[in-house]
Amino acid sequence: MRARLVALALLLAPAPAVADVRATVAALAPSAPVLVVDAKGDELVAQNADSPFVPASIAKIVTAWLALETLGPDYRFETRFYLDSNRVLYVKGGGDPFLISEELAPLASDLVARIGKAPIAGMVLDGGYYPPDLRIPGVEDDGEAYDALNSALAVNFNTIYAARSGDSVRSAESQTPITPLAIAEFRTRGPNGRGRISLSRDPAASLRYAGELIAAFVTRAGGEVKGEIAVGTVPAGLQPVYVHRQSRPLSEILVDLLRHSNNYVANQVFLEIGGSRFGGPVSLEKSLAVANETLAAHGLSGAIHLEEGSGISRDDRMTARGLMKVLDLFAPYAALMHGHDGGTNKTGTMDGVRTLAGYADTARHGRVRFVIALSGDEGAERFRLLRAIESGL
User: Fold this and answer.
1) Of 192, 220, 248, which marks where a domain is finished?
2) What is the mean pLDDT of residues 192-218?
3) Model's pTM, two decimal places?
4) Confidence at 77, pLDDT banded by 50, 70, 90
5) How many whole angstroms separate alpha carbon 211 and alpha carbon 205?
6) Which residue, among 213, 92, 107, has the nearest Cα to 160 in the 3D structure?
7) What span, in angstroms and rounded, lies between the C-alpha atoms of 99 and 165?
8) Which pLDDT value is given to residue 16?
9) How far apart are the C-alpha atoms of 95 and 102, rounded to whole Å?
10) CA nearest to 229, candidates 104, 91, 84
């Protein structure tokens, strides 16, 4: 009899702890959606779990899952290069979100090795894979880096990182050459000192900057670009002389996306979801069609509503139970997620919104999935709730 009583006490021991955590959540955030689910699918804490909330950047978890479902973890973005009989180089963008300086250096070396070091007579930039009137809900034309314009052919996240002192402008990073357009843009809109601005105002300027930077790296690689850099289209029938496949597979891009929460990268990835299925030009409508089809297949039509892929739109909506299902589906890729606190989680932050979701390890219930969606501007509160969940469960 004594052994049975001891076994019963051990079985019931976690219950007060769960009750205590529920009380803590209710006391700290009585109106907030909060949901915690263990590995068996049991809801340990469930508060306002079906109330829609603005997710902010935790919407990127949904985008990452959709991209893995649609494109696969080994998918690589491509940029195509063509050379005509006059040695005019045509560059056709494929929406690669990581055409950064560290990628452009080996790209230029490979390109020069393929086409030779004879001067390039001109460069034509083809950004037709993205329509010129593409606009992402929530992205403002303000020059902020997080509002960078999405583009089929853009470099360094469609931003310029430089340092200005009066009219003097220099690159703020050793790996990136300064270009004439970068100098002109930063003189006009950049801060005094070091800073980053986006090329959010003019798609043609974005393309031209990509061309100038590619030309600079071609020169570093021993080639030469002598002619004009222009915007246009690849002539029909011309075959590529070099196809650059992004060195990072999608899974590595998603690690950076979830860690640094780059809105530009998120929507480049989101737009490729539709582009890969329906072809170019990309559009939000195409990507939303694929996203909504995938969500519906998992019973999530009413629980997750996306306007775009980054969470920058205040019209994005989801419920804690809906996101919890995505976290379950995303669990095989949980290692891609690296939170600011060192945990396996993702934050979302905008005025009046503080969200947090992911996976946490607890003493009694092992690894759990959680969603926390707070109103207000107190960012530390969501982590206080997470610590209470981790220690109390």
Assistant:
1) 248
2) 90
3) 0.92
4) very high
5) 10
6) 213
7) 28
8) 59
9) 17
10) 91
